[in-house]
Amino acid sequence: MAKILFIEDDPLLVKIYSTRLSVDGYEVISAENGEDGLQIAETQAPDLIVLDIMMPRLDGFSVLEKLRQSEKTRNTPILVYSNLGQEDEIVRAKKMGATDFVIKANLSPTEMINKIKEHLPK
Amino acid sequence: MPISQTVYYGSSSTQKKSLSGIPQLEITPSEESINIHGQTSLEELTKQMYKQNVELAVVNKTLRVIRALYSVTIESLEVEDVTQRLVDTIVKELNLTAVLISLIDEQNNILKPIAITRSAEIIKALEYLGKPLESFVVGLDNLSNLAINVVKDKERKITGNLLDILVPHVRQRDADKVEEITGIKTLILYPILLGEKCLGVINIALAKKVDDLSRVQRETLEQLLNVVSTSLDRAQLYENLKIANEKLKELDKLKDEFVSLASHELRSPMTTIKGSLSTILDGYAGEVSKETREFLTAAYSENDRLIRLVNNLLNISRIESGRLKFLVTNVDMSKLMKDEVDNMQMAAKERGLTLTIDKTENLPLVLADEDKIREVLINLLGNAIKFTHQGGITVSAKVDKDMVVTSVTDTGNGIAPEDQDLLFKKFSQVRRGTYSRQTGGTGLGLYISKKIIEGLQGQIWLTSTVGKGTTFFFSLPIIK
């Protein structure tokens, strides 16, 4: 079954998604800061990455840039998942290669999980 | 017969000042040139003509220089640039050795040299002194410097000693050396006045030892000072405006960043509340009793209301600053409607209302900003749920010419025609001028929705029957 990496510093959000996604048979792995996220993305080969922007150590934009430079994660779907979300930030993320930009508060977990399923490689 | 005063336009009988300060001539013979027998001799007339010709020449010259100075002020608005151009123009037009303009810096309480004639001699003198021009600032309280006295007394002063304007920066022998290099023998200092305000000092340097300028030069120069002061004032005002504008831009950027950050901070806890409640309600954390479900559902939809409020405030700040931007892509309205109806299902159930989708199959894609349209739909659904007490809400969409028209129909009280005009206006809820409202809300939702839909080349409108219900419509262009 597909492996989803959450690079997200809010442990409660990670818990919500790992609870729900594991019931559907997905494997959820997580990192609580950008640096760890990069390392796990390199070594664990996730099928999809959910990426927060405001995080300690390395912010989501820098992580996104590095993920897109890396051979291993160049084509992995990346859903930027943040409560930022002014047009400039969305445009910036998409220019940098984000597959989609999701404003956290606007989607319920069900909707977010639908988005994840939609973008998972078939 | 005395020499007629009319040669110099300081006289009163033959010269009037126009409003612009440019002298105007009256070409009539003066009384003295008419003899007692009422006859004018040819000699007198010739003299008269000659004098008036000279006068005309002076006025012409003045006008030409003034025109040159005006064009300086039109070509540039940077203070330093304007000042340098004024200096160059005055030197050239009046055949002077050098001109120096210093301006008052009120903030630092100093008189600061801004521009000087850039002749080989002046450059050499500055090299000799070993300091750039702008370093020769003088405190406005330093009365040993002649220029400061000009500022204080608001009147022109003349000196033969360069030291008078160079103190406290140099000693007498350096001043003498500068005199030797530049050949300057006389300095005439004029205050640059704008009404009662002194903007600075203009220093006129002559290579001759004289008590004063020639009268022609003096008259011309005094006329020019008006132009100099207004153009410098204009440039300074412009510069201040530019600085204020930069500051405003900076502030605006900070405000934008703050709003972005504040909304992030507000939305983050709401996200985890939303996620936690929905996870419990969806049964992932064990069984939920009917009563618990009721309370949690209420909490969930109230939290969603908060999220909508923050989103609307974020939108309003962007609309008000003229920075509502759209990310236009191909949007599938059927999917969007399904998402949002699912999303609001809980809020509808909580109030005992049905929320259903009607007729959305095979809709063409529209050109729109998905997130923004989502907000419009959430606003319309939120309103419908809020204002309907029994029955339900139906969402529908159909193609009309080159648009997809989406509608939200409720079975609420309906809206009276006189209230319909107010709906799309800002703070429509507040406008009623009373706090005794039946429902909550800022009254921003429909105003924002209208701005969004119109920004996306669509329209928003409603039909309503009091007692039966209301339908809101919005149209969006189908992709070509």
TrEMBL record, chain A:
Pfam families the UniProt entry points to: Response_reg (PF00072)
SUPFAM superfamilies: CheY-like
Sorted UniProt keywords: Phosphoprotein, Two-component regulatory system
UniProt domain Response regulatory: residue ranges: 3-120
GO biological process: phosphorelay signal transduction system
PROSITE patterns: RESPONSE_REGULATORY
Modified residues (4-aspartylphosphate): D52
Name of the protein this chain belongs to: Two component transcriptional regulator, winged helix family
Organism field: Candidatus Gottesmanbacteria bacterium GW2011_GWA1_43_11
From TrEMBL, chain B:
Assigned EC number: 2.7.13.3
Domain of life: Bacteria
Gene3D superfamilies, per database record: 1.10.287.130, 3.30.450.40, Histidine kinase-like ATPase, C-terminal domain
UniProt organism field: Candidatus Gottesmanbacteria bacterium GW2011_GWA1_43_11
Lineage: Bacteria, Candidatus Gottesmaniibacteriota
Span of domain Histidine kinase: 261-480
Record's protein name: histidine kinase
GO cellular component: membrane raft; plasma membrane
A GO molecular function held by the record: phosphorelay sensor kinase activity
SMART domains (UniProt xref): GAF, HATPase_c, HisKA
Main subcellular location: membrane
Keyword terms: ATP-binding, Cell membrane, Kinase, Membrane, Nucleotide-binding, Phosphoprotein, Transferase, Two-component regulatory system
Reactions it catalyzes: ATP + protein L-histidine = ADP + protein N-phospho-L-histidine
Subcellular localization: Cell membrane; Membrane raft
Membrane topology per record: Multi-pass membrane protein
Listed Pfam families: HATPase_c, HisKA
